[in-house]
Amino acid sequence: MLEVRELTTKYITRFQEDVYAVDHVSLKVEEGKSLGIAGESGCGKSTLALSLMGYYFPPLHYSSGEIIVDGNNITGMDPDDVRRTILGKEIAY
Questions:
Q1: Would you write out the chain's pLDDT as a tens digit for each of its 93 residues?
Q2: How many domains does the chain have?
Q3: Residue 41 structural domain
Q4: Distance between CA 7 and CA 28 in Å, rounded?
């Protein structure tokens, strides 16, 4: 199961301004179910997917919220650990 609680991520521009790409997103996907995200170009679909997988590389930064996979809070988990233990097994993009 995947549960996201109030996830917020932002891009920091070269002028040190915050641009919120994912703003307080919450969702829940039960085991055996799939989720599709649709929207206009530039609305944050890819940023949301990258955030769920722990891909926070500048200029993208985690701001707040929780990501829970099978009861384990992976928020703040080392990205290498996320890739090794979760990606492709629990979450795919």
A1: 899 999 999 999 999 999 999 999 999 999 899 889 999 999 999 999 888 888 888 899 999 999 998 888 988 788 788 777 776 666 666
A2: 1
A3: 2-85
A4: 12
